[in-house]
Amino acid sequence: xxxxxxxxxxxxxxxxxxxxxxxxxxxxxxxxxxxxxxxxxxxxxxxxxxxxxxxxxxxxxxxxxxxxxxxxxxxxxxxxxxxxxxxxxxxxxxxxxxxxxxxxxxxxxxxxxxxxxxxxxxxxxxxxxxxxxxxxxxxxxxxxxxxxxxxxxxxxxxxxxxxxxxxxxxxxxxxxxxxxxxxxxxxxxxxxxxxxxxxxxxxxxxxxxxxxxxxxxxxxxxxxxxxxxxxxxxxxxxxxxxxxxxxxxxxxxxxxxxxxxxxxxxxxxxxxxxxxxxxxxxxxxxxxxxxxxxxxxxxxxxxxxxxxxxxxxxxxxxxxxxxxxxxxxxxxxxxxxxxxxxxxxxxxxxxxxxxxxxxxxxx
Length: 363
Ligand SMILES: NC(=O)c1ccc[n+]([C@@H]2O[C@H](COP(=O)([O-])OP(=O)(O)OC[C@H]3O[C@@H](n4cnc5c(N)ncnc54)[C@H](O)[C@@H]3O)[C@@H](O)[C@H]2O)c1
Prior knowledge:
The chain is of the alpha/beta class. It has twelve helices and twelve strands. It has a domain of about 240 residues: Rossmann fold, CATH 3.40.50.720.
């Protein structure tokens, strides 16, 4: 059970954030205040299972808006902040980096500033209990050769506008601890996959294209290696670090699941061959199509997650095989969710028409 009364979760309408909100509501007794501006990546329909819970609140707020964020803190008096709101797609950061600088760097700065002023005024017991947990990525460490793993001591070497903006925000969070004593935690996680992922990232793009008999575009030769973690394992790890991690520490989170992109796509195709025996597109691997590589494409990421395992006794509960089977099954069963994303109908929840940009690109 959580020892925290109220947790502000930023980005709670996104892929990982919604898994965190579902986890906290379902597995703890804490109240969640979901602070999300609902960009194209925010989808309140991902929270349908918990949105009627008396411990769930939603605030449509931009994390760059100092006054609005301060007002959220004044009204909800959080015991902790779990900060996930971000622009998160590498390809979008290459096409248009400015919103990444704004949200990921200025937004994190704004939250830190509000949190510090709020924390300064807390009573001693609440002050020592308060935590600011920043959720980051392994991409800040750059690219690995064929051997080696990212540890918490690996020097930062971000290569894309996305990873550079996340690295900047990590540095700000660390500086707010060193300079002002704000009790922060940072986690750097490998690639996530699972239910409710927006269909612009590798795994959902491949599943949905394959179901529709569309080409499965793969960057380069598909030999880039990523380390995969099932999203619910990440959500549980985040709550564990938030409640039991040591302030000022960084924890790497990963599943020790290295796969080339081509291996991932082939695994999805085999699962679909098995689960959709009547599909006219079998064998789905025949849809694979290689396209020009992404600019500055990092070769390999791999996480050493031994610190969180050793110090907090965490390890993932899903293997890649079990997690991928669950994920493919979820997309086959939850057509309404992703059809409303692809059509743009999910934006009607927030009174907007579709932007229709699901980014069906190479992966
Ligand atoms: N997806 C991954 O594989 C992965 C891996 C490691 C770390 N991360 C990090 O985890 C976090 C969540 O990733 P995700 O994949 O769930 O992202 P996502 O793109 O699915 O969701 C981001 C959420 O943030 C919200 N948001 C964006 N800008 C905002 C703003 N200015 N104010 C308030 N809300 C805003 C969006 O509406 C959306 O709900 C990010 O910080 C990301 O860097 C992601």
